[in-house]
Design goal:
Low-confidence stretches: none
Order of helices and strands: EHEHEHEHEHHHEHEHEHEHEEH
Helix content: 25-40%
Distance between the termini: 20 Å
CATH architecture of the largest domain: 3-Layer(aba) Sandwich
Strand order of the largest sheet: 7-6-8-9-10-11
Number of helices: 12
CATH topology of the largest domain: Rossmann fold
CATH superfamily of the largest domain: NAD(P)-binding Rossmann-like Domain
Oligomer: single chain
Largest sheet: 6 strands, parallel
Number of domains: 2
Mean pLDDT: 97
């Protein structure tokens, strides 16, 4: 059995991949372009991919292929219709990054609430030492206790963020297509009008692309903070940038983008000097323990498939 990993660099250089070589012949590439993919998968029985797009046009060059393992929960980079037609199984990994993504979500929200970038820069710049005053209390920051945290998308990550927010004393509102009894579920307009912090955890789909648009942004509270750790295209990125620049959106944290990495002319490039914005390079899922767990899960998916067991199967 030949196992080919197409983009090992996206998993980091600090975790072992030996679990794959224990299963079969293992070949790993740091990254793979669309032009390189056909040749690299030509004799693969198993393809492991994180971000490399596997279209039918590419996959037709892998006649021995029986399994594709996506090192993520989302699998929109795989042509599932082609796989169904050709009898190629597809597995993802569910729930592996819940704690890590929730951790970054809360970290962003708290950093923006407390203006940590501003206060950190004030001390490191030497201004604090020169001031002769023991403290600095502007810009004004607030407690999150008693505030309302709006959760857009109530899957595993959304629920975990809600749990943490509750511990900090927040009231929770949730937007979910199918309401559940344990949470106060409301429509999106009600959520954004009443929430002090809004975090986005909803999957990308035709129904959710552009969900947070100019109209929704205009309904947010005066000091609302928005955090997106789901998919970049759920936000109207141009509208978000405009809202930050005109002061109608108080704070913004984002780890995901419609194009990754985003180009120099991306709307968020205009936010590089904004102290009330935190932009991270799609790293919320990638804590060390999280990635070790991910590799283990993928290896178990491969073993299960060849033992004729159903495990994390999409197709």
């Amino acid at each position: 059995m030949k196992i080919v990993l197409l983009d090992a660099k996206t998993l980091g250089d600090d975790i072992p991949l030996s679990a794959f070589s224990e299963i079969g012949e293992f070949v790993s590439y740091p990254k793979t372009s669309p032009e390189e993919a056909p040749e690299r998968i030509r004799d693969a029985d198993v393809i492991i991919t994180n971000k490399v797009k596997l279209t039918g046009e590419i996959l037709k060059h892998a006649p021995s292929l029986s399994l594709i393992c996506v090192t993520a929960t989302g699998y929109d980079n795989v042509d599932t219709e082609y796989c169904k037609k050709c009898g190629v199984a597809v597995c993802n990994v569910k729930g592996y990054s819940t704690e890590c993504v929730a951790q970054l979500t809360v970290s962003m929200a708290l950093s923006l609430t407390n203006h940590l970038r501003v206060f950190d820069d004030y001390v490191k710049s030497g201004e604090y030492s020169k001031s002769g005053i023991q403290n600095k209390l502007t810009p004004t920051f607030n407690e999150v206790y008693g505030k309302t945290w709006g959760i857009v998308g109530l899957g595993n990550i959304g629920k975990r963020v809600a749990d943490i927010a509750k511990v900090m004393g927040c009231n929770i509102l949730a937007y979910k297509r199918t309401p559940v009894v344990d949470y106060e579920c409301v429509d999106l307009e009600t959520l954004v009008k009443n929430s002090d912090i809004i975090s986005v955890h909803i999957p990308s789909s035709p129904e959710t692309v552009g969900l947070i648009d100019k109209k929704v942004l205009s309904l947010m509270k005066e000091r609302a903070i928005l955090v997106n750790v789901a998919r970049g295209n759920i936000l109207d990125e141009e509208a978000v940038a405009e809202a930050i620049l005109d002061g109608s959106l108080y704070g913004f944290g984002c780890d995901v983008y419609s194009t990754e990495p985003f180009p120099e002319n991306h709307p968020y490039s205009k936010l590089s000097k904004c102290d009330n914005v935190i932009l991270t390079p799609h790293m919320a899922w990638g804590g060390y323990e999280t990635r070790v767990r991910l590799v283990s899960e993928v290896a178990q998916n491969i073993r299960a498939f060849y033992n004729e067991q159903e495990r994390n199967r999409i197709i």
